[in-house]
Amino acid sequence: MKTFKLGGVHPEENKLSAGKKIEVMELPKQAVFPLSQHIGAPAVPCVAKGDIVKVGTKIADAGGFVSAPIHSSVSGKVLKIDTAIDASGYRKPAIIIDVIDDEWEPTIDRSEDIVRETTLEPKEIVARIQECGIVGMGGACFPCHVKLSPRTPVDVVIINAVECEPYLTADHSLMLEKPEQILIGVQLIMKAVNVKKAYIAIENNKPDAISLMKEKAAAFPGIEVCPLKVKYPQGGEKQLIDAVVNRQVPNPPALPADVGAIVQNVGTAYAIYEAVMKNKPLFERVVTVTGKSVKNPSNLLTRMGIPMSQLIERAGGVPEDTGKIIGGGPMMGKALLNAEVPVCKGSSGILLMTEKEAGRGEEAPCIRCSKCVTACPMGLEPYLLSKQSEYAMWDEAEANQIMTCIECGSCQFTCPSNRPLLDWIRQGKGTVGGIIRARAAKK
Amino acid sequence: MNVILVAVIVLGLLGLILAALLFLIAKKFAVEEDPRIAQVADVLPQANCGGCGFPGCQGFAEACVKASAQGSIEGKSCPVGGKAVMDKVSEILGLAAVEAEPKVAVVRCQGSCAHRPRTSEYVGVKNCHVANATSGGETGCFFGCLGLGECAASCSFGALHMNPETGLPEVDEEKCTACGRCVKACPRHIIELRPMGKKGRRMSVLCVNKEKGAVTRKACDIGCIGCGKCQKVCEFDAIILENNLAYIDPAKCRLCRKCEEACPQHSIVAMNFPPRKPKPEAPAQPAAAAPAAQPAEAPKVAKVETPTPEPVPVKAASPVSEAMKEMPNPMSDQTQQETQK
Amino acid sequence: MANKLKISLSPHVHGGDSVKRNMLWVIIAMLPALLWSFYTFGLGAVIVTFTSVVSCVLFEWAINKFILRNPRNTIADCSAVVTGLLLAFNLPSNLPLYIIIVGALFAIGVGKMTFGGLGNNPFNPALVGRVFLLISFPVKMTSWPVPHQMTAYADAVTAATPLADLGNANLGDLFFGHIGGSMGEVSALLLLAGFVILLCAKVISWHIPISIFASAFCFSVIFYAIRGGMPFADICVLSLKHLCAGGIMLGAIFMATDYVTSPMTHKGMLIYGVLIGFLVICIRLFGNYPEGMSFAILIMNAFVPLINNACKPKRFAKEVKK
C-alpha cells in the first residue's frame, strides 16, 4: 500500500458522519460574504448597497491574478458592505445580503442531467474556472486557475480525495453521491493542462468510495484510483505527490508543477464540473458538521455565507458543554471566535469540541525524546525550530529550513510534553518569511 | 644554588622572549581606531539597550563619530542618557548640542476586564505575537491590548509591568527612557512614544480601535468611537480623525483639556495634571443623568490623576459615528497563512 | 452554551502521549531485571533499590521546592523514580545506606537539577551518580556479593566481577544471570525482555541498543583478532561474553537510550551507539577499569550536541540552489 515516506502520525479517525447522505441546507435570512475567502488579493465588490442580486450573480471581482471573484449564493438585496468576523478571527470587509427569495441566474443549468461532452478549448476551460471563482476546496483556498496555468509542462494530475483530517467526511460523501460528475471534472482538469494521466488518491479507510470510484473510472481513460495507507498528513500536497508518484517537490519557491504534477481536491473537481458543464459559479459546497457531542453529525450541502450556527442547529444544536468550535478539521482547522462566522469556499467542516477536549494538556519541559523529529513529514526538527522561534534566533531557524514547515501539527500532536511546538514554529515562520521578503526587496 | 640559578635564567629568558613576541604582535596587528570612539563610549550609559537603533553603546559611539565627520550628529540620540549625555557626546566631537524633546512610552489602551468584557478564552502560548496571529483576541476589540506582557518583558529598565488587576501594562514614567523597545515588541502597535510635555502633562487618546463606533462600543465601553466631538471643540486643530479613531498631535496640542471634557467615551485622558476643582454649580441640562452610562471605575494609567469626568450625554455620539464614511482597516500585518501554495 | 469558547492555533487534538507514560513504561521494562535481582541478591537488593528510589524522589522534590522554587513540582512525571531505579541497578547489593544516599544526591542534585531539571541535563543523572561513587568509594563499588545470599546485606560474601576473568566464565550463566555483579546487570536475558517491552510500547527505537551491541561485538572481535593467539570461534564466544557480562546490556538498553542525553535523529543515534560500543571495548581491553560502560556513555553524552548539529534528519527535499 502506497503512502508518503517521511514521518506522519495516525490520529483517531472519528469519522462520525461517514456514510450519511448529503442533506440540502435551507436558505438563511441573511448571507455574509467575506471578500478574502482565498489566498491572494481580496476580491473587490462590484455591487453597491441596495442592489438586487440573484443566485449566482457576481458580487465581487478578483483583485488580481492570484485572486478569485465571489458570487452570491442567495437572491436578495445588498444590505451593506461592511465588516464581519471570519474564520481568521478578525473582522474583515464583507458583503452582507438580505435574502428575499431563491431566484437563480438564468444562465445556470439547474437540471440533474449529467453533461459529458464539451467543445471548450483548454484555455476556455481555465477562463471559465477563473470566472466562476473556483478555489482549492481542501482548505488552503488557492485560486484554481493559477494552479491550472503552470509555468512548466506537467504530466500528471493527482486528485486529492484522501481526507486525512479526522472527523471530516465531506469529500467522502461527495464521492459516494457524485462519482461521475467528479470524474468528468477530473477529465476537464486533464484537458485544461493537457495531461493524459490522472490519479484519484483515496485513503484506505474509505473502501466504499474506492470501489465505487474504481467501477466508474473504468469508463474514463487515463483516470486511475490509487488507494493509500491511512496516515496524516497525506492530504498535504507534497506528501500526496510523494505518496502517489514518488516525486519530491523541492523547497519553496518550487511548486508541484516543477516536478510535473498538479494536485486538486476532489471537491474542486466537482466544482469545476459544475462551473464548466453547468455554468454554475462556486457558491455551494458540502460541509461536515460533526463532533463527539453533536447529536446528529451530518454532511450538508450548503450555500456560502450562511452563519455556521445555522448548520450546527440543523445537526442538533450547540451542545451545552461546547468548549471550542473549529472551522475545518482538528489538525489544521481554525478555532472560531463564535458560531456566527459564515461558511466560506474553504469551509470543509465544522467541528464542535467539548470543554474537556478543547483544553490543552499541561506543558512540561522538552525531554528531547525526538518523537517530533520522527513524526515530521518534512524531515525538520520541530523541537529545535520552536526553541529558536521562542528565543528569536531567526538566522538559525532559517538555516534549519523553518520555511518548509507545512504546519500540519504532527509534531505537537505527538509531543509527550504537550509543548506548543507549532504555535512557536508558525510565529517563527511568519517572522523569517518577513525577513526573507525584506532581504529580497533590498536586492 | 645551581638549580636556582638555572631556573632564574630559564624563566627570565622565557619571559623576555615572550615579552618581545607580544610587543611585536601588538605592533604588527594593531587596529587603528579613532580615540574619540572610546571617549564617546565612556560617557554613554553602557546599558547596551539598543534603544538608539545601533548594536549597543559601542555601535552608537562608532556611528556618532562617523556622523561627526559629516558635521552633525542630528537624528542620533541616546534615549537612556537623554540630553545630558548627548550634550557630552557633542562636546567630545566638537559639535553644537542637538535639541531633542524627552519622550515617554504611552500605552494606548484602557481595556481592562471591567471595561472590555472577555468573550473567549485563549489557550495557546502566552506570547502576544502568537496570540495576535491566532485571532482577534479574547475580547470583542481586535485592536486592543492582548495582555500577555510582551512589552513588559522587553523593557530592560523595569519601567513597564503588567497590572494583574486590569491586565494592562503600566508605564513607570520615572524609569521609562523612551528607548522604544516596547513599541517594537507590541504586535498591535499600542504603545507610542509621545513627548513628555511640560511637567509631564500631556493629552492622549488611549485607544487604537479603528472599528466603527457601534462595533467599538459593543466591545469596550471606554474605546474611541470616532464621533469627532473632540475635533470640534479643539481650537488648535490638534486632533486628527482617521479610520474612526481620534489622534492628538502632540506638536499642536496646547493642553486646554477641552477634548477630554468633550469625549463621551473617556478615551481621551489628561496625564499628570493637578486635580480639577469641582465646578460650583451643577450642569443645568437634564442630561446630567447620563453619568450612569459612564464606567464606575476611573481609567487606570500610571500616575494619572483622574479628573472628575464631565457629564456628557452619550446618546449624541452614534449618529456622528454613523456619518463616518471610512471603512475600518482590517489588521494589516497579521501573518498570512500560506500553507499549501 | 455556558462557557466561553476557547481559542487556540491548530492542532486541536493531541495523541495522548505523556512524559509520565514513557517513564512508567521504562519502569515496567525494568521490572523483570529488578525482580531477578531481588531473587539473586535477596534482602540487600531490596534495601538498595528502596533507598535509592526514595532518596532520588525526595531530593528532587526538595530541590524543586526549596532551591529552584518551581511552582510545579516535577516528581509526578516519575523521572526521579527511573533515575533511582537505574542508580540502584548500577550498585552492588551490599552497599551501605549512606553511600547510596550520597550517590542519589549527586545524581539528582548535580547530575540533573543543577542544569535546570528534567530535559536540560547533558549527562545521564544515574550514571553521574554511579561514576561519582565509583571514584569516591572504589573498593566498595567494585566488590560484588556472590549470588543467592538471600538474607545477607552488608555482611554478604563478595567476589570479583566475572569481567576480570571472562575467559573462564560460562556464556550461559552470563546470559541467564547466574553470576555476581551490579544489581541490575546480571541477567542479559531479562534486560533483553525489557528492551522488547520498550520497543513494543514505542518508547525507544532500536537504533541505539542495536548499534551498541553490533559495534561492541565487532570491535571486540577485531581487537582480539589483532592480539592473536586464539581461534576465531573462541574470539566470537569471548566477544559474546563481553556483551552479556557487565553493564553493556543494561547501559545499551536503559542508560544510553535516555531521551535527554541521546541524539535526536536516527543517523545520530547510530553514530552515538557505534562510538559507545567502540569506547566500552577500548576501556575494557586497554583501560585500568574492568568495566567501561558508564564512562563510554558519559563521554558520548558530551558529544551529543555535536552529533545533533552534524546529523540533521533526512529532509523531505533538497534545498533549491540559489
Which SSEs are present, and which pair or pack?
The complex is a heterotrimer of chains A (443), B (341) and C (322).
Chain A: E1 22-24, E2 30-34, E3 44-45, E4 52-53, E5 58-61, E6 70-71, E7 75-85, E8 91-101, H1 122-131, H2 144-147, E9 156-160, H3 170-177, H4 179-193, E10 198-203, H5 207-217, E11 223-228, H6 237-245, E12 261-265, H7 266-278, E13 284-290, E14 298-303, H8 308-314, E15 322-327, E16 334-335, E17 349-354, H9 355-358, H10 371-375, H11 382-390, H12 394-399, H13 410-414, H14 421-442
Parallel strand pairs in A: 1-14, 9-10, 9-12, 10-11, 13-17
Antiparallel strand pairs in A: 2-8, 3-5, 4-7, 5-6, 7-8, 13-14, 15-16, 15-17
Chain B: H1 2-28, H2 35-43, H3 56-68, H4 82-93, E1 103-107, E2 120-122, H5 128-134, H6 150-154, E3 160-163, E4 168-171, H7 181-185, E5 191-195, E6 202-205, H8 213-219, H9 229-233, E7 239-242, E8 245-248, H10 258-262, E9 268-271, H11 317-323
Antiparallel strand pairs in B: 1-5, 3-4, 6-9, 7-8
Chain C: E1 5-7, H1 19-41, H2 43-67, H3 79-89, H4 97-112, H5 125-136, H6 138-141, E2 144-145, E3 158-159, H7 171-176, H8 188-200, H9 207-227, H10 232-244, H11 248-255, H12 266-286, H13 293-310
Antiparallel strand pairs in C: 2-3
Helix pairs in contact in C: 1-2, 1-3, 1-8, 2-3, 2-4, 3-4, 3-5, 4-5, 5-13, 8-11, 9-10, 9-11, 9-12, 12-13
Gyration radius from CA atoms of chain C, angstroms: 21 Å
Could you give the count of β-strands of chain C? 3
The biggest sheet of chain C, with number of strands, parallel, antiparallel or mixed sense and barrel status, is:
2 strands, antiparallel
- The strand order across the widest sheet of chain C is 2-3
Annotated CATH architecture of chain C: Orthogonal Bundle
Counted beta strands of chain A? 17
Instruction: Tell me the overall shape of chain A.
Output: globular
- CATH class identity of chain C: Mainly Alpha
**Which structural category do the helix and sheet elements of chain C fall into?**
mainly alpha
CATH topology of chain C: Ammonium transporter fold
Percentage of residues in strands of chain C: under 5%
Biggest sheet strand line-up of chain A: 1-14-13-17-15-16
**What is the subunit arrangement here?**
heterotrimer
- Reading off the top of the CATH hierarchy, the class of the largest domain in chain A is best stated as Alpha Beta
Give the count of helical stretches of chain A. 14
